[in-house]
Amino acid sequence: MSSTARIREIPYNYTSFSDREIVIRFLGQEAWDTLNVLRGERRTGISARMLFEVLGDLWVVRRNPYIQDDLLNTPKRLQALVEDMHHRLDQIVARAEGNQQALALADKARQAVRDFEAWFPATKAKRKAALKAFSRYTREDNIRFDGLSRISHVTDATDWRVEIPFVVLTPDTEDEIVGLVQACIELGLTVIPRGGGTGYTGGAVPLTEDSAVINTEKLEELGTVEYKVLPGLDRPVPTVRAGAGVVTKRVSDLAVAHGLVFAVDPTSQEASTIGGNVAMNAGGKKAVLWGTALDNLASWRMVTPDAEWLEVERLDHNLGKIHDQETVRFRVTRYGRDGKTVKGQPEILTFPGRLFRKQGLGKDVTDKFLGGLPGVQKEGCDGLITSATFILHKMPQHMRTVCLEFYGSDLREAVPAIVEIIDDLKADPEVKLCGLEHLDERYVRAVGYTPKGARGERPKMVLLADVGSDNEDACAAAASRMVRIANKRNGEGFIAVSPEARKTFWLDRSRTAAISRHTNAFKINEDVVIPLDKLAEYSEGVERINIKQSIKNKLRLAREIRAYLQTDLPELQQRLDYQGRADLKGTGEGSNIVLTKQQAGIELLNRVEARWQGILDNLDGSAFEFDHLLDDAARADRREGDTLIQLLLRRSLRISWKTDIQRPIRDLFEGQDLEPVRKKIDEIHKQVLSSRLFVALHMHAGDGNVHTNIPVNSNDYAMMQEAERIVDEIMELARRLDGVISGEHGIGITKMQYLDKEVVENFTQYKLKVDPHNRFNKGKLLAGSGLANAYTPSLRLVQQEALILEQSELGALNDDIKNCLRCGKCKPVCSTHVPRANLLYSPRNKILATGLMIEAFLYEEQTRRGISLHHWEEMNDVADHCTICHRCVNPCPVKIDFGDVTVRMRTILAERGQRNTKPQTAAAMAFLNVKDATAINAMRKGMIEGGYAAQRVGHTLAKAVGLTKPKVELKVSERPRNTTGTPRLKDIPVQVVHFVKKPMPKGLPSQTARKMLGLEDSKTVPIIRDPNKVNEHSDAVFYFPGCGSERLFSQIGLATMAMLYEAGAQTVLPPGYLCCGYPQTANGDAAKGQQITTENRVLFHRVATTLNYMDIKTVIVSCGTCMDQLLKYQFEQIFPGCRLLDIHEYLLEKGYKLDGVDGVQYMYHDPCHTPMKTYKAQDVVNKLMGQKVDLNDRCCGEAGTFAVSRPDIATQVRFRKEEEINKGVEKLTGKPVAEKGKVKMLTSCPACLQGLSRYRDDTGVEADYIVIEMANKLLGEDWQKKFIEKARQGGIEKVLL
Predict the structure, then answer these.
(1) Which residue, 581, 675, 917, 1140, has most beta carbons within 10 Å?
(2) What does pTM read for this prediction?
(3) Would you give the end-to-end CA distance of the chain in angstroms?
(4) What's the pLDDT tens digit per position in 96-119?
(5) CA-CA-CA-CA torsion for 1269, 1271, 1272, 1275, nearest 10 degrees?
């Protein structure tokens, strides 16, 4: 039995826990000791396996809310599980033969099962009581017991988990918080404040099951920039007030819009929130100039552990770094539960400025007591931050971004440049260093950094800096000096001046989370702060750790290969897997040949291992004393006083697997007859290499804040333990260099063991004073807290289990999501993450949920109970909450496309017969699938004309009775409801209301474009051209209209053909009505989508053959999903040398444009599936319209069949889009609702045209297609009639297919 198997014999354990931790968690340390004693006596065998089965059941249910909910809702399945567990325990007792230790162990397990059984009725009762208590203060759908909500809040960006929270609360307003906290107190629940969930130390990870996570993401009120005179100051300063749930980047963008700077800019700013920034005292690259959150706070409000209000105001603000102020004062005012009644006199807290950070350091968040200052740096342990007011700063007028690339192999040459640059800029009074960031070579590789230099090699280190000044010449001169400093240290420098170029330079810094991609997204992430003059020493210390780990890994590799060569080489005795390979082991002579090679290989490995071990054992030994361990390259670079580690650091001495082992072994086992041996050795290498640990660094170098990351495979228990030992070394190194163990990430549960006892004791006394009953974040930041009871899931183990169970589709789904970093960068762009619309289905949350669904499937696949229908319902729920916009892939550091994940989920559901298909969806798909012209016209008449008219009547009635209102008139209490769960029959009335909330467009053409032009015959290929314009040089284009442009909004197809006709092109249409296949694939019918794609490709090859006399070089589309699907058609093989273009891109190339339009202002809605792939869509629109057209972002809510399939979710998505439309209209007109005919929304997607048309009544904005608007303005308002007449009178040629 392998050591790995021995570590994890308990089944269904897809986590970092070993058997030991699981046994201790349920039965206690004594039980683990007893079990080991019984094993030593060989008394356990079958009984141990049965005990482990019971523990496996307990463990998987304990950590999986989907299985918990299924058992809560299906008593028969719960009873069957409990009976199975008791039966196994009965068998253990029967086999104990009176052994008291075995019986005691069985008794403990029996008690654990009884506790497990009692948990379910107790939880039901507790949920009922909680629902009643919380409902007094917030809407019922803000009280979440569902699996998705609970699993989304079980961890933060670390993926460390301890307990699943009992409930998740998502209050709508700041005022609700105090009542919810009071209810938690009454229910005996500990409160876990939670913002964006981007923490790296487990600060928001529940340590107890009796916890209520209060998610503040809906507290999104962001004020405008106000110039206020702060207490103690004599002049107004720019400030901004933000709710706790406001995403940090929104504040930054608001400041920039006013020509100002928000100094708090952590790398997680796209997902982190203001409340978390305050509670953690977050920093970022601008902290080098203006400090962290604490330095920039003017005031903040919070709810205390007594369910009362507290406000803290900074007095005499120095508008800079807080530790530079000699005396710092705060005013603390307490209020009653109404938030208005002042309790007692305000308290003035006075501190010396040096208290807030260790002297000489730019950041330090290790002192959790902080003199008793409430809220800040307390990590949610003394209350819940609800809002804060920050000061803003003015950025220098002129900025330069400098990128410095350092080459070579000597860290001592490169790292000192950091201090030299800082000292140089400090000496220049006209220049400010506004940011200085560092990436080491491992990060350079991980982020896919593109070197700007022409050396043809990857840099050893990269520095990115922002330099600012009000004097442009001084700014340019400082940037040039930085480059010269780099030049002296074997570096090159590059300077960006324009905002676009500067933004490009900084993009790589935002992708640093990608370091953990190769270990399936789990990493130990530590941040320390090192004095600037000791950064080089710290970097060298970390590199020493890397060298030791590398040598250890290679030594293990040598031993594993030697162990293999000492076997009979079973691979040579297996079947001959290809022709021509001889059976060397089949003869005595052959066996002797192989044995001789084996002995030679073993001798080689012995020599190499001895040398490598000698180097490892004598790293600090003299390079001259250990000359026998060096090679020629090392001897050539050896300097006076060198030790072995210095040669290794300079890389003149290398421990090379390729040189020392791989090449000699390959030469030894050369030839095809021995290829199986070489393959096996390569497999051993791959396996051993996967467990190699390394430490990667990136820094906020300006203030010495070093992020130290260790990617780890969570399935590798030994690797996890070794990683913890490395962290011990790193923390010891930081302390030895007079640094601190955290600069901005905080302490949480990952660093408690490294805090000084005095710091822990000070905070403990503070906690006893303000929260003696542990009502907030129970157990955090107190002695005894830490990682002892924490685990992380291992998707590698899930993958292995899927392979074993032959669940390939679940394995593929697992593979799609396994690299997720939980960073939340997907949230701002996700159409189904709109907190204020009660929509919290970001890819980050859905991936966490999907991982546990897969686990539930694999677990229940192995039980006699079978897979519960409940799990399929949950998968349907996640699959429904996605518009498949694919927007999440761009900001994702590891490029997970949850649109593709959703398509796979829908396909799995469809193939298993578990996809929830609605009648309206089936009807829509039938309309798209049918090709017969008569059927299409009949369905169009009934579904489009009749159905749309009926829906509009329903909308009118709903509006009359107040069931639907414009967004600008909605109260907070009228915002969309939570849509978690699959709608039931009882929900049909609600779905109908959602379906009629926005009216379907009216005034659609009564016929399709093909019918109007007489082109419905599927046996002929239509060619449309103006005979007066076409000549031998005219373009021949193939136009694929797609369903939306000819079956639904036929005016789009007609306008496209009319403009091509006007341009003098010969337009070839496909024969008959065709769908591209995208809608079918997106809905989970992958087979149908593939069938359509194949049939279309065959048909188009026939068209190309029939029209081989035409040189078709351009394929035109007028739909984004058609473009996405047609890109897979390999048109270059159909029409050699052709390209795919959107109609608008084609018109741009042909020089068509408007000269601006009087009386109408435009906005542009860029579809999620933009058809413009060759040119930037916004540039195309601006040029075609002859004026600047503002982009109006966010999904329209239509998304193909999404709006008819799940109108309730579409309502939530539309809530956000309507908000964006109102903002766009207000920017253009000064009011959120436009006057009729004054504002138009242009788009380039048929589904979006339908979706946008539905906002007209509520926003006053009319929607239209760009090509239709151009046809109206360039060809005249009656262009349709004229074009049809011209085309039918000699403008159409029909070629028999």
Answers:
(1) 1140
(2) 0.93
(3) 67
(4) 888 899 899 999 999 999 999 999
(5) 160
